[in-house]
Structure formats: structure tokens, C-alpha cells
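Q: I'm writing a short explainer about SOUL heme-binding protein for a general audience and would like to include a description of its predicted shape. Could you first generate the structure from this sequence?
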Amino acid sequence: MSVARLSDPIFRPLSGHITSLYPPQQLKLNRTSVLVTKTMKRNWKLKMSMVEQSPPKSTVDIKQFVDFLYEDLPHLFDDQGIDRTAYDERVKFRDPITKHDSISGYLFNIAMLKKIFTPDFYLHWVKPTGPYEITTRWTMIMRFVLLPWKPELIFTGTSVMGINPETNKFCSHEDFWDSIKNNNYFSLEGLWDVMKQLRIYKTPDLETPKFQILKRASTYEVRRYSPFIVVETDGEKLAGSSGFNTVAGYIFGKNSTTEKIAMTTPVFTQAFDADMSKVSIQIVLPSEKDMDSLPDPNQEDISLRKVEGGIAAVLKFSGKPTEDIVAEKEKILRSSLLRDGLKPKTGCLLARYNDPGRTWNFIMRNEVLIWLEEFSLD
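A: Of course. Here's the predicted structure. Afterward I'll give you a sentence or two in plain language.
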């Protein structure tokens, strides 16, 4: 056991007080340091609170950039082109299969697409999405002219464009496609999406109803159709041909004025109910015609009707469209729309673009269409 020696210092607390082991001078310094530390923490918390309540305002005029893009982007692929002075020299461009890190590379990519694909670019909207960020929504349709059948490659999506606040110019441009999930560079999913669109579809060189592609998902397109007129009669099955000769007779001159009317594509068959029990077969009439200028049908079972147009989801497929195949495609399309939160209407249409007696099955172009209750690109 340890025994205290007389020479060892003995500390005895005074009654009612706690005696510190530190000298008075050191105790004073320690208390001062604690006070300074507490004050600094309190001031730091106050500053952080002020920052949270009043974030620094951007010096970038975001509206000016939005207005500029509305004017400039429609010239992306025309002879005028975009204004390169609006971009930093070290602008960063990315899409799922392409990247460039300079304005020269960015413009080279645009020139290459223009030469090989003759693209059509449609700008839907431009919105600010951050103090130094703008997002655009667009549709781009490219025709691969190097292949004999000149396939159409359709891309829809958004571009997020960053602004450099020091130069007041665009410093980045990143594309996101609606048709794929992995939009990072280099996306094998994106490459496969391109390859799938190179397949052969035979589309006759005839007038079709006018529409604009708003969105292309992985399995379907969303289109806005302009109004069009059809001549129609009752059919038996969605994939059947019953009634075709009757409506074709109308455009071949069997009408009140014996007028011959130009053939169009596709031939529609429409099911008006979920059971597909009520079906009509329709031929679309040329767009220059209106209800007042068309001759009356000679037969009572033929009628003319104006389709008001609207938004439709479309699934495209090849091969001979038998009743079972069409029913399966309709089921796939409707399920996809419900999964994506869209509101499909009852019934559907089958669009057939080719003469089945003169076209190989594997290059036939067929589509199933379902009208949508409502649709927003936001």
C-alpha cells in the first residue's frame, strides 16, 4: 500500500469551495478560451442561419437565356446554324453515345449529323431549372440516307444546359433520351436503341395523316394528330379486310360525282369497344379535301366522318397482322401506357400501310394506336 510522505504536497479543499489543480493565471486563460469558442460557434450558427434564409442571388439573367434558346435552337440543323458565340470554348457536350469537350467538337457533331442524317429538330419548350441551368424538351427525326431504305431514327428527350456565371455563356449540354434508362456515356442501351431503328419497314410513297411525334418511349410513340377525314363502313374483325372493297370503291369513282380520289395510307380498322365487337374499316382521304367538297357516297352503308385528331400512343411492328398478333400488341401497348401513368381510351385502331399481296411480311409496317385522354410534356 502506498504511504504518503511528509514531503509530498497535500491539497485540501476549502470548505464550500472546489480548489482547481491549475494556477489562477492558467484558469483565467482557460475560461477566456471557452468564452471565445462559444462566441465563435454562436456567430457561425447565426451566419449559417442567414445563408439558409437568404441564399446568394444569381447574377445571370436566366430569362434572357431562355428567350435566346427559343430563337437559336430551331436553327440547329439549318443553314444559319446556332450562335457559337453563346458557348464557352471549353463547352462540355454529352449524350448516351457521343461526347465532346470543346465548341469545335460540339459543332463538328452537329455538322456530321446534318450531313449523314438530314435531321428535323422540333423544340417543344425551354424552362429554367436552376440559377445556372436551363432544360429544353425536343424531338429529333433523322433519316439515315446512307442505307437504301433510308430508315427514320426518332429521338425525344431533354437537354440540360449549364451556364458559366463568369462568362455568361453556356458551358455544358447534356442530353437525356426518353427511350432508354441508362443515359450515361457510353451507353450500350443507347447504342442498341439506335440499331433497332435501322430495321427495314416499307412505307408507300403516299400521303398519310399529319402528326407530330411528341415522345418516343422504349416501346411506343406519343403523337399529336391533326384532324383528318375518313370514308368508312362496318367491318368484322380488327385484322380483317371485310368492307375494304366497299370504301375503296368510293375513292375509285363510285360516288355521286364519279370523282376519283387519290389513295392514301394507312388503311385503318377501328374497334370502338374493349371487346372489339364493333369494328369499322376506314380509308383516309387527302388533306386538301373537306367535308363540303367531297362527293356523297352512292351506298347507304358508307359514310364520311371527320376525325378531330388528338393525342395517340402508337406501337409499331412488322409481319402479317393476324387477329391474335394485333390483340397481343394492343395488350402490350395498353399495359405500357398504364404503367407509365397515361390514360388510354377504350378501343384501338390497327393501321396497315402495305398491300399484303405485294409486300414481304418481314418488311410490312403495321401500327396499333390508342387514343389518350390527356397528355402533358411537362
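A: For your explainer, you could say: The chain is about 25% helix and 30% strand.
Q: Perfect, that's easy to follow.
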